[in-house]
Write a structure and sequence with these properties.
One of its GO terms (molecular function) is oxidoreductase activity. By secondary structure, the protein is α/β, with parallel strands linked by helices. The chain has six domains: 180 residues, 3-Layer(bba) Sandwich (FAD/NAD(P)-binding domain); 122 residues, 3-Layer(bba) Sandwich (FAD/NAD(P)-binding domain); 116 residues, FAD/NAD(P)-binding domain (3-Layer(bba) Sandwich), CATH 3.50.50; 73 residues, 3-Layer(aba) Sandwich (Oxidized Rhodanese, domain 1); 94 residues, 2-Layer Sandwich (Translation Initiation Factor IF3); 152 residues, Hypothetical Protein Ychn, Chain: A (3-Layer(aba) Sandwich), CATH 3.40.1260.10. Strand 14 and strand 15 form a beta hairpin. Helix 1 packs parallel to helix 8 and helix 17 runs parallel beside helix 20. The radius of gyration is 32 Å and the shape is elongated.
Amino acid sequence: MRRIVIVGGVAGGASVAARLRRLNEEDHIILIERGPHVSFANCGLPYYIGDEITDRNKLLIQTPELMHDRMNIDVRIQTEALKINRAEQQLLVKTAGQEEVIDYDILILSTGVKPIEIPVEGKEQSHVFTLRNIPDMDQIKTYIEEKNVKTTSVIGGGFIGLEMAENLHALGIQVSLFELGNQVMPGVDLDMAQGIHEHLIQQGVDLRLEQSITRIDSQTVTTSTNETLTADMVIMAIGVLPESTLAEEAGLELGLKKAIKTNDVFQTNDAHIYAIGDVSEVTHQISGQAAHIPLAWIANRQGRLLADHLNGKTFEPLKPIGTAIAKVFDLNVASTGLNEKALKQLDKEYHVIHVSGQSNASYYPGATPMTIKVIFSPQGEIYGAQIVGRKGVDKRIDLIASAMTFKQSVVDLQKIEIAYAPPFSSAKDPVNMAGYIAENVLTDQMKMAQHDEISDAQQLIDVREPIEYDMGTINNAKNIPLGSLRERLNELDRNVPVTVFCQVGQRGYNAARILKNHGFDVINLDGGYKLYKQLHTAPKPVVDKKETVKEEVKTVSENRRFIEASGLQCPGPILKVKENIDEMQEGEQLEIHVTDFGFCTDIDAWANATGNTVISNKTEGGKVKAVVQKGRALPVNVMNDAEGHQLVETKNGATMVVFSGDLDKALASFIIATGAASYGKEVTMFFTFWGLNVIKKPGIKVAKEGLDKAFAQMMPKHAGKLPISKMNMGGMGARMIRHVMNKKKVDSLETMIEKAQSMGVKMVACTMSMDIMAVTKEELIDGVEYGGVATYLGDTEKANLNLFI
């Protein structure tokens, strides 16, 4: 009979104990646990705090009594292991203040992890918590209920920090989430984390990246940027380290992060001592290097395999890849293998692709978008994958993890036969599509560019629809919709590489195929404009609810039109909005439900660009639910204070329509505009018809035909070529007035335009006039906004000075 002592009764410890007994009735098994519970679901602790799990007993998978009665295991809870005497093969423990020496033939350490601590003044106070076990959970739950907690600061943007932020928010608590790095969830790369950032902010979390706290007081925290925030409670969730003090003091060999080093059968440098679970070091399958991966699946698998080994069974060495998933409000975020950060540290070459797909067939109700990122070697080995979406994320990450585990190539992803029916998948599942795209990349049939690889030496073509282009595009991109690309090939220079992009990549791929077949050197932007925008636009911070904020009074009408656009991919939802708004009367409202969370920002951009009003824009029940009103909601000088009382704001704006393309009138416009801006007025200049020539860039040539070409030849090329309204004399008059301005040290028109922009003067180009006058966006100076008459009229409501020049 062997005497086997196990230290640690959760996950790995409980698993090895149960498997040992199932394989052998002879061994005397003693399970030591410092806390009051064994085999509990520690991953479920945040969800009990947030009332998602309401029955506390369901977190207790096994009890000491059940393990003793059913498995004949000697379970000793609230017993602390103090010291290992390796020479005598003894373990010193303490229970209820009494010390005892336990002899062992085999000692198994499964002591787990401990929270990382940082030196913050005030961290020992009673309202500062960490979450590791059920007693911690109970203390947090009790404190929230007894102290009526309204605000909290969560420190750390990993799994525990995000889960706590979500569950505290669910209780109606205002949450500030601090992360010292530039992103949450370090297991995924920044390009995937940006979508999580946007979603956290949309949910009302005060996300503070690259910030931490320096001081904790009774009801406030001081941030690293010297701000003071209200915090009735503080959750420290910075991360975890192996709980290896017992092993270290016994002289066992430690490795990465002081995790216990073991061989392929989990044996330490002491032949009688083994280590499993979060306290131990593992060998990563992809990197081949030591790693610390504190995940429950690994701990439970190690427990089973160790019990097999101790009973004479052999097995293939366990080399995990680190597959994980987390729920972040309405999003699911999953990863497996290595991310780009890790691969760069290993100096490995790799390819990256982003695949946008749906959780199920788009025509079946409830389809939601997901983004899959796959990283693979030039030889096709899958290095890692990351997925962000609302539904079906777990299924797809498991498929890819399985392929990696059994060492299939990235091209093999297209071979996986996936169960298909409209409620569950698409006939072309996103995982299969990843395999197809990867094959195109590896065989060099399709060149891909990442967001930071766009060059001015390339022709940049946006193949989305004009409505999408108007909502925002990449600087210097020309809009040639996919449907008209073949007819407009003559607008492209065959001697210059072409980079194409759409919203998420599919139309860009089709456009690239067309261009490649016509002999162009073409590159498709991986991830499309959606990914580019996420990485080049900082998330907007949440406004402090306690500040007095003036907002337009916006009331949702009971008699509003409704559209269900769930499952539609961009630009589908926006096109639905436009089609309906076009049929509606001024002031009427439209409600639309969309399952693509990116619609939150899309609808705001569209409304701003088209002179309409977003009355309501929120995520609820896994959908974006927006209400849009045709035109402006109310005069913008009608405001609310923080308590909801109406305020009347004094008009202090200046607006002018710049209709003329004459030099002298343009000069007058900018003299007035900069003067008004210097008085603190908010100035809007609306350039229409001939006035568009004032804001043209010099040196831009755009190929035009027919009447468009005729207009272009008749009009001035840029501000430096404008005529004057009187005595122009074939351009001599304009040259004379410029000469006099220079002599009198008066700024040129070009300089005035630059000054106006630097002073915050808003310049809007009339999109209708642009169409009539054959003026394109690429011909206009940077910083100009685009809109219609509704945009101008909306600004006039705030103005007490209106001019037509």
